[in-house]
Each structure stands twice: as C-alpha cells, then as structure tokens.
Specification:
Strand order of the largest sheet: 1-4-5
Order of helices and strands: EEEEHEH
Structural class: alpha+beta
Radius of gyration: 22 Å
Distance between the termini: 97 Å
Strand content: 5-15%
Largest sheet: 3 strands, mixed
Shape: globular
Helix content: 10-25%
C-alpha cells in the first residue's frame, strides 16, 4: 500500500530552505539570506544556545538577556555590571553594521524577544502620562512687550 507523501512543515519553503530559525525570520519568503556568521551565544543564560546568525533579508530577534553582538566581538568584553542590555546590542547593530555596511547587511531588521509582530503599539505609548506644560516659544524677530 502506497503512503501519501507528507507535507513539509510550514516553516520550510518549496525549495527546502527555512523561513525562520529560533532567533530569526525571513522578511520575504521568496528571498533567502545570502550570508551567515559563525554560531554565537548572545547571553550567559542556560535557556539560550549558540546559533548561526543570518546577515541579510531577515528580522532577527534579540533575547531580553542579550549583551553580545551576534556579528562582531565589540560587546563581548563589556563590564558585567549593567547586563543584560538588549537595547545596547540593537543600537550597536544599527550603528556599526546596518548604517556603516548597508550593502552587506541589506534588509536586516532587529526586534526584541517576544514575537515577530510589528511594534505598532509600544509600551511607552500605552502608558498614559500627564503632559507637562510646554514653554511658550517666541519668534526671535517678533517684538514682545511685557
């Protein structure tokens, strides 16, 4: 009796390449990452493991406990005080890699741990704050009389 061929998992494309990994997801299912860096662990916690990081056409997800850059050794020797700091890692990747080498890191986007959903509503905008009274701005060329 012949068996029905199994469907491939939803995270595998027709050509057999992955759509996502544990820490990354393709932005466009039709475009594969061209370059990968060596496996690297971004934190010291036991929950995360070293993984290969794609360089282009993906959205990477930085864990909340991350303090190392997946693409270089610039943040590897950061003082232990102040760890973890995924915001520092994101800022470093944007400044040192995406802006300076935009042809190599083409299409790279960064998000924080959680899910790969858009950050349309950030936690800052969700918190209602009292508005501060703003100083009135005067035109320099305008004559003001007391």
């Amino acid at each position: 009796m012949a068996s029905k061929p199994q469907d491939s998992p939803s995270w595998i494309t027709e050509d057999g390449s992955p759509l996502c990994g544990f820490y990354w997801m393709r932005i466009d299912p039709k475009v594969q990452p061209n370059y990968w860096v060596q496996p690297k662990k971004l934190c010291e916690c036991w929950e995360h493991f070293p993984t290969q990081w794609p360089v282009d056409h993906v959205m990477i997800q930085i864990p909340a406990c991350a303090f190392r850059c997946p693409y270089c050794t610039a943040l590897d020797n950061v003082e232990k005080e102040g760890r973890p700091c995924p915001v520092r890692v994101k800022r470093h990747i944007n400044a040192a890699h995406i802006r300076r080498q935009r042809d190599f890191y083409m299409g790279l986007q960064i998000s924080f741990s959680g899910c790969f959903q858009s950050n349309a509503i950030s936690t800052r905008s969700a918190v209602k704050r009292k508005s501060r009274p703003r100083a009135h701005i005067y035109n320099v060329h305008e004559n003001r009389s007391p």
